[in-house]
Write a structure and sequence with these properties.
single chain; about 90 residues; 4-stranded parallel beta sheet; 4 helices
Length: about 90
């Protein structure tokens, strides 16, 4: 089973969600977790052994960059995500 988690920043929220990953791995041995995050969260999430693939991008460009640079980020993300098939997608935003 492949799961995609999208939680870009908000380090407190990311910290609270780490228990979810641990539980998923504990009860589903065949699970593969891919997490999409911003560069701010990368140092923390790169240390989490239960995350199989970490995809990062510059969230400052996504939130404050020009429309061209924002589109460039989206295209780069889609190129990384399209070849994968995900059974579940968890979005950590309200």
């Amino acid at each position: 089973m492949n799961i995609l988690i999208i939680k870009v920043n908000a380090l407190g929220d990311i910290l609270m969600s780490l228990h979810m990953i641990e539980s998923l791995k504990k009860y589903h041995k065949d699970i593969n977790i891919t997490w999409v995050c911003g560069k701010q969260a990368e140092p923390l999430l790169s240390k989490v052994k239960d995350i199989d693939t970490l995809i990062t991008f510059d969230e400052n460009i996504l939130f404050k960059g020009s429309i061209f640079n924002r589109l460039k980020i989206f295209v780069q993300l889609w190129k990384k995500l399209l070849p994968k098939k995900f059974n579940k997608i968890i979005i950590g935003h309200s």
